[in-house]
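Consortium newsletter contribution from the modelling node. Members have asked for a concrete example of what our holo predictions look like. Here is one, prepared for the acetoacetyl-coenzyme A complex that several groups have been discussing at recent meetings.
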Amino acid sequence: MSFTTHILRRGLSTGVLRMAAVNHVTVIGGGSMGNGIAQVTAQAGCQVTMVDQTDEILQKSVNTISKSLQRVVKKKFADDPSKGEEFIKGIMGNISTSTDAPGAVANTDLVIEAIIENMDIKKKLFTELDKVAKESTIFASNTSSLSITEMASVTQRQDRFGGLHFFNPVPMMKLVEVVRIPQTSDATYDTLVEYCKKIGKTTVSCKDTPGFIVNRLLVPYMMEAVRLVERGDATPRDVDTAMKLGAGYPMGPFELLDYTGVDISKFVIDGWHEKYPDNPLFNPSPLINKLVSEGKLGRKTGEGFYKY
Ligand code: CAA
Ligand code: NAD
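And here is the predicted structure:
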């Protein structure tokens, strides 16, 4: 091993190296979150490769980004539509798509995983990517509720691993929770924070605990709302009206459940219940189970607690 390679390896494994510039980002999963993350990253001038399972899904993701950018442009370039067109073209030019995850990460600075909320599937993906990504590439997961430490354990780059938890809708929500595991190096953490700054987000730091900050508070709140309806105490519509007009929330809990995906909340609560069966805040909900079994996942399927 050459002296430089030795120093580089040592630096990487001990976190001695300084923060690295993030110019190319690979987003795995082009769903609600992945396409939003790809959009804001491309808007900040980074090159982005968005990966999903089929070209058809990727085409939908690209269309969603394009529609979201039209909404941005409508306000930003209200007086000059041709400048707006140029703006969109420039950003879309920063985004490429691929169905080949290992191929897409071969030369990337940062991988952000935003696939299905399932530990085994995420671990399988990271195992595969770890073998082919360059040594300096940082891996991050956008998981809502799973352990980052457990995901990182299948890789040889635990010092270059962290959580980047974005919020839905990504282009509008200003926060990203940056999650450190005990092995995350300072250089990795600083790089993740700097990337978030570059894309215009405010960060908070959190340890690798269930739900980090926001979901640890938000998910039990939404589940309490569902239990209130299950008991027949009030209707979803009245609960939503109450929380919007009585507590100043932008959406009521049922609007939010439908917006983020009823299936996402089911994955979260089932996972936490399995891990912490004695915590009543994490009890699963028969009503949520019924909606998911009927394919009523919220806005994305046209029906959840409400019809769209
Ligand atoms: N892309 C681009 N622009 C958008 C947009 C998007 N996806 N969504 C909204 N906008 C912009 C547009 O300019 C829009 O104007 P047009 O409709 O004319 O295009 C403008 O915002 C206003 O939007 P809306 O009229 O739809 O409504 P709003 O002012 O109520 O804002 C909202 C929408 C930001 C979603 C707001 O309702 C809100 O903050 N809701 C709560 C969201 C929330 O709590 N998210 C966190 C969920 S939890 C999570 O994500 C974590 C997890 O792990 C599950
Ligand atoms: P989604 O179902 O909208 O999208 C997931 C995408 O990943 C789909 O397009 C699917 O085809 C793709 N996918 C699945 N397995 C894949 C694989 N092995 N390789 C490549 N692509 C694959 O889900 P989402 O709402 O975008 O959630 C994604 C992640 O983000 C989850 O971990 C979720 O917990 C988290 N999250 C969700 C929200 C939310 O509000 N929906 C908010 C924050 C974090």
